[in-house]
Write a structure and sequence with these properties.
The structure is a homodimer of 494-residue chains. Chain A has helices at residues 89-97, 242-246, 470-475, 479-489, and strands at residues 23-26, 30-34, 42-49, 67-75, 78-85, 126-130, 133-137, 144-146, 153-156, 173-175, 180-186, 195-201, 207-214, 225-226, 230-235, 238-239, 253-254, 260-266, 275-279, 283-293, 296-304, 325-333, 342-345, 351-356, 367-372, 382-387, 393-396, 402-404, 408-411, 421-429, 434-441, 451-454, 464-469. Chain A is mostly beta strands and 494 residues long.
Chain lengths: 494, 494
């Protein structure tokens, strides 16, 4: 006798977190305000979790759940929408069983016996297009390749066997000048290992460089950053304890007495070139960018003076109080013998999900975009645009009791100046339990959307995503990379 | 430069009528209350309109719009959901053009010149399974066959060329004893023709009988009824005027001075066996059933003392005031020489979308089900169960400000007594702009649902549909028909 499918009444499934689970498509979304710019042609891909079945243990955390990809294809003023679950091993096993088979977040020791040894990856965090492939990412496993037109799952992708790490970050960095993808793995040899692997993937999707080293403990590293010359990987005080997870405990524990440790190394570095820095107890989920200024490496990130994931408790089982994230700059002087670093706050308003004009990742940059939380944080969230040159923060507040999801930047043209383009922002209409997609002029967000595109449904929560120009999908290469290559062939320094 | 897709602010698109346009699927709907009975295995198919694009003329009526089919597949306590537009010629032409190309309701003279001569059928009214085929129906054209598992459109279906009528009713009647489908066409030779064609389709899907005759004018006949021996087709005072539609006017006009005219003939009748009856000006969209009592034929229908489609105006262009529908019985005495008939009201509460235990269509029956409108009709609608034996009306009111869609009956077993089974009812949660599917014990509707199945999305409006037992989908024949055939082979009178 089948038990009814019924989700537990827990905070993570309340309100906006209520499962949607719907796979859907809609050709020609309604544009209820303004017009979609005719020069905005390409696809916004996003990904987030939406629980396939009620959790085995009756509880969950907001970063868990099976991954569902979404896409908005812009074609000369028309926008087509589609969502599709990633049909990886976990999903298809559970689909067949019609129930959850994988237990607590990342803890294989809590799984149903029938799925021992199976791939428990959720594919729920990010969507990135590189080397002619659309990849869906979660740091618990390798990428899953999906069809960029249909979102149908194609295969798990280990770069033709070249990647030996067991997982890959959900936050690789694209270098749109060289066409390279820079990525890494932590716990790269399996649960609770200290191994870190860094990879450079060339513009054709081949592994061009790899570097293995060991972290000071079995860490959690959700994001990292790159400059034109260097890579920076922060290790905040989260640790995986094999004994704890074997006992059914949380995959990560927060160590409030422990320092932040940061690895910096050259892009094509060797193991002996990894340099370590140490600082106060902090944490962060997401980096905005990293840049070089002479010998100094600046890392801009949404920094918490405490635990950014309060649902990962201390070894004593204590959940820590939430603290607000502030955009901050850590500065590492590579010319100095010190293992310390400076930290300064860049903006007064709490914010998360920082993004830039992607063409300026690793480069000197001026414009940052993020979700901002005003004084009345319960009232939802706002879009923020921070001008690093002036220090000024502009805001767009979509409406009382609405929230926004991470903004993505789309340049007006491949050779447009930095920040000349659009921000694409999913707006959560919390009262109506559905979304709009707002298109804003990235230089005038305070003026409100140039187009407001209405969805009749809810896109529960897409953590991250990417704008892929139509030209990239057609040619297999980013137009900015193509432009720079043409300039190089012509002997022009790009 | 593409015009933005934007729907006009008109009453038919307001509130619950707002376009959804989403094609979706969800495996294992959440059962938020009770349990889905394990003996309820099969598929509920439904169909309704959901406008593909904003209307060409900026206005529409609620029975217009491109057809979207929905299905709920019940499998031992699990329920899977799917919706899909019918990809007929109209839909695919508009999909390609990314705009409406077909104009006013059923008026080809208001279409874009590019679609002259194309099939303008909307396929938006009903879903019926017969002869191993799932057919999507609208009286403006021939049926469209769709895949019963995926709802993908297969083809237009003219019964291998056997049907010469240009259209078929959306309300054919299944005889679950013989496995026959009884159906008809009006304006059967094209717009504004008076030709009516009646067809009997055998259980294998072959045309077994046809009868052509002429109506007194070019009529609208939305529904009809059959008994074990006879067919009854009412002609209410709606007429199509070719001059009016050529001038861009409404497809039907209401003639308040005209009588109701009813044709009655034997199931295998010849043209000279069509008998005509006349009565007061009335109208109806939907029949509950028809039965024989000696020489008397009873037709039970939701009868309006006036125009049931007030948006079809008089020849003077006057829209008539809405009048309430009451379940009523028209009685035609076939032994009498009179061309009159008796009418009596069966229930005091306005109601629409009448249904029965489908196994008793055309047979003496006791139980009727319908949407009831209480004194406070603005407050939504209720499910009603009328017991013809006692005259008692039971009600289930899903909740203040909720409404329901047409109920479908599913027998507990093929040989269960009349009314022993479930009612499947889409509940419109108007505040939340989404649906539940309620499963009620058909003998105890006042007790509320035995299972309440939650949808995260809205099924805009499904006019009609049908429950198809799993056994029928597997074997190609209704279990009740199979049971009766087995009894006949064994020499037992079923």
């Amino acid at each position: 006798m089948a038990e009814p499918i019924r989700f537990p009444d827990i905070p993570v499934y309340a309100g906006w977190g209520a499962p949607v689970r719907l796979e859907s498509e809609l050709r020609d979304l309604e544009v209820v305000q303004g017009k979609v710019p005719e020069d905005l042609n390409g696809t916004l891909y996003r990904c987030g979790p939406d629980p396939q079945y009620p959790p085995m243990r009756g509880d969950s955390i907001f970063i868990d759940g099976e991954g569902i990809a979404s896409m908005f294809r812009f074609d000369h003023g028309h926008v087509d929408f589609r969502t599709r679950y990633i049909r990886n091993e976990r999903f298809t096993l559970q689909e067949k069983a019609r129930r959850s088979l994988f237990g607590r977040y990342r803890n294989r020791y809590t799984d149903d016996a029938s799925v021992a040894g199976k791939n428990r990856g959720t594919a729920n965090t990010n969507a990135i297009w590189h080397g002619g492939k659309l990849l869906i990412l979660k740091e618990d496993s390798l990428p899953w390749e999906v069809d960029p037109d249909t979102l149908e799952t194609i295969r798990e992708w280990d770069y033709d066997g070249a990647v030996k790490a067991v997982s890959m970050t959900a936050h690789p960095k694209l270098d749109l000048d060289t066409g390279e993808l820079l990525t890494f793995s932590y716990q790269a040899k399996g649960d609770a290992t200290t191994d870190v692997a860094f990879y450079v993937v060339d513009k054709h999707g081949k592994i061009a460089h790899e570097l293995w080293f060991n972290a000071p403990w079995a860490p959690m590293v959700h994001d990292f950053a790159v400059t034109e010359t260097h890579v920076v990987i922060p290790f905040f005080p989260f640790e995986t304890d094999l004994g704890v997870i074997k006992g059914g405990g949380p995959f990560y524990q927060w160590h409030p007495e422990r320092q932040t440790v940061v690895a910096v190394f050259p892009r094509r570095g060797r193991p002996d070139e990894v340099r370590w820095f140490r600082g106060p107890t902090t944490s962060a989920g997401h980096m905005m960018n990293a840049t070089m200024e002479g010998s100094k490496l600046h890392l801009d990130l949404c920094l918490y003076q405490g635990n950014c994931f309060p649902f990962f408790p201390t070894p004593e089982g204590k959940e820590t109080e939430p603290v607000p994230p502030f955009l901050s700059r850590m500065t590492f002087d590579l010319a100095s013998n010190s293992d310390g670093y400076e930290t300064k706050q860049l903006s007064p308003m709490p914010c998360e999900m920082p993004r830039t004009d992607d063409r300026y990742q690793g480069r000197a940059y001026r414009h940052g975009y993020m979700i901002c939380f005003g004084p009345d944080r319960a009232g939802g969230s706002m879009l923020g645009h921070l001008d690093h040159a002036s220090g000024k923060l502009k805001l767009w507040n979509p409406e009382e009791a609405s929230g926004i999801q991470e903004p993505c930047f789309a340049p007006r043209r491949p050779d447009a100046p930095e920040g000349d383009g659009y921000l694409l922002v999913l707006v959560n209409r919390i009262k109506e339990m559905r979304n709009d997609l707002a298109v804003l002029d990235a230089q005038k967000i305070e003026a409100g959307p140039v187009a407001l595109i209405r969805l009749p449904t809810r896109v529960r929560m897409t953590f991250h995503g990417m704008w892929v120009p139509a030209q990239a999908l057609e040619t297999g290469i980013y137009p900015v990379t193509a432009m720079h290559e043409a300039a190089a062939r012509a002997g022009v320094h790009a």
